[in-house]
Design a protein that fits this description.
The protein is 28% helix and 25% strand. The protein has 286 residues and is α/β, with parallel strands linked by helices. It has 2 domains: 5-79 and 158-252, Rossmann fold (3-Layer(aba) Sandwich); 90-156, no CATH class. Strands 6-7-8-3-9-10 form a 6-stranded mixed sheet, with helices on both faces. Strands 2-1-4-5 form a 4-stranded antiparallel sheet, with helices on one face. Helix 6 links the parallel strand 7 (159-163) and strand 8.
Length: 286
């Protein structure tokens, strides 16, 4: 069944501090929605509310017409997969064992018969098959992120919620992970991604949602939302948006660099005359 996610009037207050205020959001099957905004805008908190891990102080979140809070844990895990910003594992699992954790919701179901096939495909798509026997804590941050992405893919859900999946990745794997997100949407999943890289957001999102100070400041296609005026206001820093090969590229405005100055030439050394061994030397004073 295709997932449909709907949030209305979502507000979160923590220790008396408003983190989110009146956020409305719809995510349909077949689309990639990217959440962007400055630090502290509420992106990760909103994602946690959408996953059902954080209960909103006000407002509602529904998945396929039902309150997210009404789902039992296993039922919810079969519908939505979550990639957290930080990967925390208390024990030294092998990378393949971490990927296999994504199959736990399907234990003792007909889907469990496909576990080996699904895990192998997820490892291949996340480019971690060669890491299968490595201990997870010994992997680099980027490798851990890709193994965790493989776990999400192995979970085989119709809703993916990804919190900064590219943060620890090199350029090649940033592009690869977001291509996979688009493939999942093309196959009918609903995908929500938190990103800081605005150019990546513009390249891969069907819809970009800009948060600022806990509110949804704008929502629309990349060309509607990724504009110099809006981004300069939200990020409180001037930006330009240029087009390259059909893609929008966000460039921070920076003052021109001062030309490099050549190092000062060293003063020429003054030659010290050497003593003439045939010249009579003065006697030292006594």
């Amino acid at each position: 069944m295709s997932a449909g996610l709907r949030a209305r009037g979502v507000g979160v207050v923590i220790d008396g501090t408003p983190i989110l205020d009146g956020v409305d959001l719809d995510v349909a099957a077949g689309e990639v929605v990217v959440l962007v905004g400055p630090n502290g805008a509420g992106k990760s908190t909103l994602l946690s509310v959408l996953t059902g891990d954080v209960a909103p102080t006000t407002g509602t979140v529904e998945l396929d017409g039902r309150p997210v809070a009404s789902y039992r844990a296993r039922e919810l895990a079969r519908r939505r997969a979550v990639l957290l910003q930080q990967q925390r594992l208390a024990f030294g699992f092998r990378a393949r064992e971490v990927v296999e954790m994504g199959r736990a919701p399907w234990h003792r179901s007909a889907e469990a018969e496909r576990d080996l096939e699904v895990v192998a495909a997820a490892e291949e798509r996340a480019d971690v098959a060669h890491l299968a026997t490595r201990l997870f804590p010994t992997l680099s941050g980027g490798e851990q992120a890709r193994v965790s992405m493989a776990r999400v893919l192995a979970q085989s859900t119709t809703l993916l919620l990804l919190d900064e999946p590219t943060a620890a990745l090199d350029l090649q794997h940033q592009e690869a992970v977001l291509r996979v997100a688009r493939e999942e949407a093309a196959a009918g999943a609903a995908v929500v991604v938190v990103l800081h890289d605005l150019s990546l957001a513009a390249a891969y999102a069907d819809r970009v949602c800009v948060l600022a100070a806990g509110r949804l400041r704008a929502s629309g296609t990349p060309r509607e939302v990724v504009t110099p005026a809006l981004l300069s206001e939200v990020y409180q820093h001037p930006v330009d948006v240029v087009e390259h090969a059909g893609h929008l590229v966000v460039v921070p405005v920076r003052p021109p660099r001062a030309p490099a100055t050549a190092p000062a030439a060293a003063a020429p050394a003054v030659p010290v005359p050497s003593a003439d061994p045939h010249q009579e030397q003065p006697c030292p004073a006594t």
